[in-house]
Amino acid sequence: MGILNVTPDSFSDGGAYLDEEAAVARGLELIGQGADILDVGGESSRPGAAPLDVEEELRRVVPVIARLRGLCDRPISVDTVKAEVARRALQAGADIVNDISALSMDPGMVDVARETGAGIILMHMQGRPRTMQANPVYKNVVEEVKEYLQDRIKWCLDKGVDAACLAVDPGIGFGKTCEHNLQLLANARVFCRLGRPVVVGASRKSFIGALTGRGVDGRLPGSLAVLADGIRQGVHIMRVHDVKESCEAARVVDSLVQASGS
Q1: Which regions in the chain score pLDDT beneath 70?
Q2: Half-sphere exposure of 76 (CA within 13 A, CB side)
Q3: What's the pLDDT tens digit per position in 51-108?
Q4: What is the C-alpha to C-alpha distance for residues 232 and 138, in angstroms, rounded to an integer?
Q5: Domains of the chain, start order
Q6: Is the pTM of this model over 0.85?
Q7: 35, exposed or middle or buried, with CB in 10 Å at 0-12, 13-18, 19+?
Q8: How far apart are CA 79 and CA 105, in angstroms?
Q9: Which of 26, 176, 205, 219 is catalytic?
Q10: Vertex 11, ends 5 and 15: CA angle to 5°?
């Protein structure tokens, strides 16, 4: 899953693709590099980020999604917590809603999910982006995140959402310390047992910087290490900034997994 941030303030590439033409060109570039899915987001969810109003988010993402849908046949995901943005993005050609709140921030989001049959990614987040990294605390982060995702799957099913539409994401960096992130990543296979595809987004995140001493632009090796271990554990979708390098690493790891028979 290639990341396309149509924002001025995302932690890694904020402002680089805010212009519609630049965003569309970048999306096509990611597809050319091997992205299987494009994840288009108009609202930054970095730690400390302030909420964005609906109209501005629509202005950022809908034209880009509409243009990309006319130029490619790859699945497009919209990264949003707002029902109106999700609905309009799906009408413009998106296929998936990637909701960092697991459909909990906007009561109308579950209606969008049920009525459209779109793919839905349910992510775990402790708190909200503005405050989530203030002091995240867990007794057992792996068990608590697993139980939360399990509960959200059941909630969606009870609301009439098709199970086949759902995927889960443990939410690396969303209300977690470096140690919490490491525990979740080291136990990614636990989330695979929930019976739905697992998405992991660890690309360039701050815990990699904490481990390596690298700034955002120097975190590719660490990101690829996470990708390789995730694939070995059975993670289905890796959400990444560096698509070309990630695809090459994934091919090698896939080949090793097949050769090992695991």
Answers
A1: 9-17, 47-49, 129-132, 134, 262
A2: 28
A3: 789 999 999 999 999 999 999 999 999 999 999 999 999 999 999 999 999 999 999 9
A4: 26
A5: 2-260 (3.20.20.20)
A6: yes
A7: buried
A8: 13
A9: 205
A10: 50
- Residue 76 host element (H or E): strand 76-79
What does the angle CA 46 – CA 52 – CA 53 come to, to the nearest 5 degrees? 165
205 catalytic per annotation: yes
Q: Where are the alpha helices (DSSP H) in 1-140?
A: 20-32, 54-71, 83-92, 109-116
**DSSP of 116-142, one letter per residue?**
H--EEEEE--SS-TTTTTS----SSHH
Catalytic-residue membership of 88: no
Contact between 226 and 178 under an 8 Å Cβ cutoff? The reply is no
pLDDT at residue 130, as a whole number = 67
What integer pLDDT is reported at residue 262 of this predicted model?
Answer: 59
Q: Contact at 8 Å (CB) between 74 and 35? A: yes
> CA 166 from chain center: how many Å?
13
**Exposed/middle/buried for residue 213 (C-beta within 10 Å: 0-12, 13-18, 19+):** exposed
Distances in Å between the Cα of 107 and the Cα atoms of 79, 80, 84, 156 are 17, 13, 11, 12
The reported pLDDT for the residue numbered 10 is 52
- Residue 50: per-residue pLDDT: 72
Burial class (CB in 10 A: 0-12, 13-18, 19+), 222: buried
**Single-letter code of the amino acid located at 208:** I
Catalytic residue, candidates 60, 88, 176, 239: 239
